[in-house]
Write a structure and sequence with these properties.
11 strands, alpha/beta, about 350 residues, six-stranded mixed sheet
Amino acid sequence: MPGLTRNEIEGLFGGLAGYDRLGLAVSGGPDSLALMLLAAHWARGAGRPALYVYTVDHGLRPEAAAEAAMAVREAEALGLAARALRWEGDKPSTGIQAAARSARYRLMAEAMARDGVQILATAHHLADQAETVLMRLAHGSGIDGLRGMDAFSFVEGCEVARPLLGVRPEVLREVVSDAGLAPASDPSNVDENYERVRWRLMLPALEALGLSIERLGTLARRLDEASLLIHASAEAVYPSIVTPLGGTSMELDGGRFASQNPAVATSLLGSVLELVSGDRRPPPLGALELLARRLQQPEPLKGITLHGCVISSDGELILVRKEGPRRSVAKRNSASTPN
């Protein structure tokens, strides 16, 4: 196909060959139309999954219904099964993008369950990855956040694949143009009220300074590799450092904890706090790093609270127990010492 060789297309979608049925999230924009065209080209081979196209009308713009109908029409022209889904009901006055995203994945997950589709491919590409890295960098994310978007993840209970994360958007637009398709244009994609759009508009200036989307994508890959190594190291030393005490408390060997690389110690402590508190959301990174470094020092600590836990140390042993119910939510979510 224009812009990509047969081998390149095979490389993009090869990891999805083991599925019987593959869903495609297609909005009608250039990126998702390119995803559909490329996947249809790839799926012609023997033993490839059946493709199901899902498009969502969020009911937020008058043009959305026609765009969904266009996506279905183009999918059916390629011989693909297609469903147009609609987000019904009242819409929130704030946080509309996040709410629309949640509704979109929920609707597609429900449709996939009806169709027996196991995984959904989305059209996130290299510039999307670069924007994500920049946004998370600006928000103070650690290594886990700066990995950017994963090639495979779960969103709203839906297994998601992102086969185009390494492809520039210009290549995708060329695929659509050469197919003679006229993509839809969502005005929210250029609305500077949204942070992602503001970063998108910065990308050309950053590229002129040498910070290309390829380099940001490479950074995300390298940090993903570093993150995997850190978490693997934390898992390896966990049994020799952490002792469950029964109920909702754990004990850590203070000397062995102190000898760990700070990133490994932070990862290990985060896992302990999640298990003890029962809250599987990651603890706030800044407070977690600060606490891990304090616990690696020989000075005793008493009654530190973080992530629904109370942490104490006498320099040799670290005790982590679940915080009592009388503590306030505000105190649970911040590291503090009693007066």
